[in-house]
């Protein structure tokens, strides 16, 4: 999801559903990870937090959760694109005791009012003990 968007700033006090689709309130799901209060415990949890970050315009979290060897110097989100729904298709490894994992997903969006879907197989690794996004490929 290199080209992201989101105009709203995350507000953990609203009690709204988390954009990642977990079914939890944002305040109990991705907000602590975005705010640096908690770390994603699995590759899938980091993927979900990154989707929410794209949806909410949390570029700081996106940059912090990117591997140092592939992280861009800056990240500008497309204001015309709105991320609407995440479907996790498959997770391989990326658990509590793993050092690497992959997550395949469909990220649904609207761009200038038109619907679209990004499908990606993202690779995650641990860097300094925490999960980070390494790279992804689109099938």
Automatic annotation (TrEMBL):
InterPro entries: NTF2-like_dom_sf, SEC_C_motif, YchJ-like, YchJ-like_M. Pfam families: SEC-C, YchJ_M-like. Residues 42-136 form the YchJ-like middle NTF2-like domain. Belongs to the UPF0225 family. This is UPF0225 protein SAMN04489832_1157. It comes from Micromonospora cremea. The lineage of its organism: Bacteria, Bacillati, Actinomycetota, Actinomycetes, Micromonosporales.
């Amino acid at each position: 999801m290199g080209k992201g968007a989101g105009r709203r700033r995350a507000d953990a006090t609203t009690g709204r559903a988390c954009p990642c689709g977990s079914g939890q309130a944002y305040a109990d799901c991705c907000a602590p990870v975005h705010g640096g209060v908690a770390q994603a415990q699995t590759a899938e949890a980091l993927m979900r937090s990154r989707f929410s970050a794209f949806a909410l315009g949390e570029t700081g979290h996106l940059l912090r959760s990117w591997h140092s060897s592939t992280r861009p110097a800056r990240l500008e989100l497309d204001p015309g694109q709105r991320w609407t729904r995440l479907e996790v298709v498959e997770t391989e490894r990326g658990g509590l005791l793993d050092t690497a994992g992959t997550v395949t997903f469909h990220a649904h969006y609207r761009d200038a009012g038109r619907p679209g879907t990004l499908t990606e197989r993202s690779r995650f690794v641990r860097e300094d003990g925490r999960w980070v996004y390494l790279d992804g490929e689109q099938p």
